[in-house]
C-alpha cells in the first residue's frame, strides 16, 4: 500500500482576506500576540532568561484564553504550533 503524506493547500490572498474579515479584531490581535510570545519563548532557553520566559508564557496564556474562547482549536503552543 502506498501512503501519501498530506500537504498543505495554499490559501489565495483574497480568500485569506475574506476569512480575516470574519474574525473579530481582538481575536486577530490575540493571534499575533500568541505567535510573538511563542517565538519569544523559543529564544529564552537558557537558565538566565527564566524570568523573561515566564513572562512570555503568561502573555501566551492570556492570548490563548481569547483564542480558545473564539474557537477551541486556535490556541498556540509554546513551540509556535497551533494546538
From TrEMBL:
Domain of life of the native organism: Bacteria
Protein name per Swiss-Prot or TrEMBL: Uncharacterized protein
Provenance organism: Streptomyces showdoensis
Amino acid at each position: 500500500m502506498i501512503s501519501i503524506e498530506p500537504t498543505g493547500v495554499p490559501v489565495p490572498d483574497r480568500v485569506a482576506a475574506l476569512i480575516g474579515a470574519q474574525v473579530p479584531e481582538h481575536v486577530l490581535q490575540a493571534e499575533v500576540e500568541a505567535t510573538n510570545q511563542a517565538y519569544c519563548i523559543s529564544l529564552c532557553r537558557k537558565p538566565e532568561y527564566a524570568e523573561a520566559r515566564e513572562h512570555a508564557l503568561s502573555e501566551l496564556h492570556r492570548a490563548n484564553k481569547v483564542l480558545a474562547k473564539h474557537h477551541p482549536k486556535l490556541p498556540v503552543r509554546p513551540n509556535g504550533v497551533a494546538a
